[in-house]
Sequence to fold (87 residues):
Amino acid sequence: MTKQVLILGATGQIAGHAIDALLANSDDHLLLYTRNPQNLKNIDENRETVIKGDTLKQAELDAAVAKADVVYANLRNPEIKQQACAG
Fold:
């Protein structure tokens, strides 16, 4: 069964490995959430949807999470406490 997998911080290095693994080993659809979509390369529009957003903006984050069956948070920055407590 295909799942909608939301990847927060999709432009991060570790997220890149997770994206590659999910594309290679599942039929899941990936929702790539990032503040900097221009940094994402080689998007497969059949399997990936880019969502421009900021995890510190609650409404944007809530809208993305509502579309997902699974959420992977690849977050590392000075606001990590606020991001972890959001929602």
In short: The chain is about 30% helix and 25% strand. The radius of gyration is 12 Å. Residues 13-25 form the longest helix (13 residues). The CA atoms of residues 2 and 28 lie 5 Å apart.
